[in-house]
Amino acid sequence: MGKPMQFVLSEGQRSDIKGFATLNTALKVKRTGRGRPKQRPRYLVGDKGYDAQMIRHTLRRQHTTPVIPKRKNAKYKPRFNRGLYRERNRIERLINRIKQFRRVATRYEKRAENYLAMLMIAAILIWLK
């Protein structure tokens, strides 16, 4: 079952590629044992919205394997792990669980700080279940 790890707010019309750098620097992955959190995950699973050479290059420099399918019109089509990509449904199910909180789904909040606070409350409740 998926759990939320990090939220980064952006404008609704902004592309996923532009928000990647902020999200990537804010993400920390918890170790299974004791010690400091690891800085980077082993794999990053994303949809076609994250298909950009800049993102793939950044992930490879951080020793993270990108599991991102290429768009239809792409000239270079690298291989990707289809079995691991199928695990992406956990992310979709998590988003649906977050949208169960009416205030988050309908975006009642006018200010970004208040909306982020509601997202955090929803994430805490999901972690507690």
UniProtKB/TrEMBL annotation:
- Domain (Transposase IS4-like): residue spans on this chain: 2-126
Q: Which InterPro entries match?
A: Transposase_11
Q: Name one GO molecular function term.
A: DNA binding
Q: Which BP terms in the Gene Ontology apply to this protein?
A: DNA transposition
The protein's matches in Pfam families, at most eight in alphabetical order, are given as: DDE_Tnp_1
Q: Which residues cross the membrane?
A: none
Name by which UniProt lists this protein: Transposase IS4-like domain-containing protein
Q: Which organism is it from?
A: uncultured Synechococcales cyanobacterium
